[in-house]
Every structure is written in C-alpha cells, then in structure tokens.
Amino acid sequence: MRIAVITDIHGNAAALEAVLADIEARGADATICLGDIASGAGWPAETVEMLQERGIPCIRGNHDRWITERAGPAMDMQDRIAHAGLSAAQRAWLMDLPPTLEPAPGLLAVHGTPESDLQNLIEEVVAGRLRPAPLAVLRERLGARGMAARVVVCGHSHRPGMVQVPDGPLVVNPGAVGLPGFRISREPAHRQEAGTPHARYAMLRLDGAATSVEMLAVAYDWERAARRAEEHGANPAWPHIIRTGLLPESA
Q1: Most CB atoms closer than 10 Å: which of 42, 47, 94, 202?
Q2: How many domains does the chain have?
C-alpha cells in the first residue's frame, strides 16, 4: 500500500496543486494531510476546497484551531488572512477535524505529537534552531499510543526527517508543502529553513513488515505564491522564504 503524506500547506494552493499532481502521477493508493491547512498569505478557501473535493482525510493543526479560537489582536497575520478568506462553513470544517488519525493498521498520524498540536515530535530547540531530540525525549512525547504504532507521521516543525525508534515506531516528518521555513518569536524562539523553495511530502510504502519511505521535493510556481503573499501585504520575510526556502537574514 502506498500512502502519500502531506502537511503544513499554509494556504499555498499553488504548491498543493503541484504536489497532488505528483502524487497522482506516482499512483498513491491514498493521501492523508496532517494539518495547518489554510492559515497563510495565499489561497485559504481554494486550499480547503481542493482537499474537500478529493476527499482527503485530514487532521487539525494548531493554526486550523486558532483560526476559530483566536480573535482580533490575538490573531497573527496568517490566521487573519485565512479567517477573512474562508467561509463560516470552511472554518467549521477545519475546527471539526480530528486531532489524530489511524488511516491504516499500525499507522498513526498526528500534527505535532499524539497529545499536542504545539509540540514538535522529533526535534527540540537548540540555540534558536531545530535539532534532533534525544531518543528518551522522543519516546516520552510518543507515549504509549505512539510507541505501540508501526509508523508515526507528524508535521508542525516544517523540517523533513525520519527516526527509527529502537523497539518502537518509524517516525516520519515529510516537511512542509507550502511554507519552507518560519521564524517564531514566542518562547522557545527559533527559526527553521528548508534551504530550497520546493513543496515537500512523503510517500510511504507499507508492505508486510517492511516500510519504505520516499522524501520528495516538488518544483512549482513559487514566484506566483510569493506574489500572492505580497498582494496580501504579508511581512516581507513571508514571500522571501517562499521564493528561496531561506529567511532574509540567511540569504
């Protein structure tokens, strides 16, 4: 069985369209989405529509939740754009998504960890950057439910990575479809950069006791996506990272 795993689209319908076309060309049996779907300086309504039209099972990320839970000054730029661009029915759809899914036997899908949509699973912040978390920390975050799974797929950090936990699951983060990096000022303050503007996803192959993983990077019209962010009046760092995969201070 071949399962495509996408996450952290952040309203970038141009990137999502390219990824879905690549998934179709590779012949996946199913696709799942790990959340943070619409929030971003892009096309929030169109992004939701694409997932709904294809019947792709999705889980709720922290930004999907914040679009409804936060209001006024508590909303940041990306959530305000999504809130304004989505219909009430689309916002309700995002809020009603489940926090986790088990789309196949032994496969657990989460946004952050099995218990939190705000905690990274396989990374921790070191000197303002994301670095691999120690196995003891990873096991604690997985908990009994995660440790009992064969494969755990997660998002939230936008950082592609895999960890095989001894006597535990293979943990896979495919990276972000629509936003290759970010800067977070709340504690612990940190930044993440993919280094390229490609849209990223993973293809799992579940055959008997073996699991194969392809970590994929798809070219798309990121200039179009960057211009869209500029039209929204986004902070200049947002279109810059869409174009380059780097924050302005790195470039």
Answers
A1: 42
A2: 1
* Coil/strand/helix, residue 186: coil
Q: Find the domain containing 153 and state its range.
A: 2-244
Q: What is the pTM of this model?
A: 0.97
CATH of the domain at 205: 3.60.21.10
Q: pLDDT (tens digit, 9 = 90+) per residue, 91-108?
A: 999 999 999 999 999 999
Query: Residue 165 pairs with which residues in a beta bridge?
Result: none
Contact call for residues 196 and 184 (beta carbons, < 8 A): no
For residue 250, being part of any structural domain is answered with: no
Report the alpha-carbon distance of residue 231 to residue 112 in Å, rounded. 30
Q: Is residue 147 part of a domain?
A: yes
Beta strand spans in the chain (E): 2-6, 30-33, 100-104, 107-110, 123-126, 129-132, 151-153, 161-164, 170-173, 181-184, 190-193, 199-207, 210-218
For residue 14, give both structure tokens: 């141009």
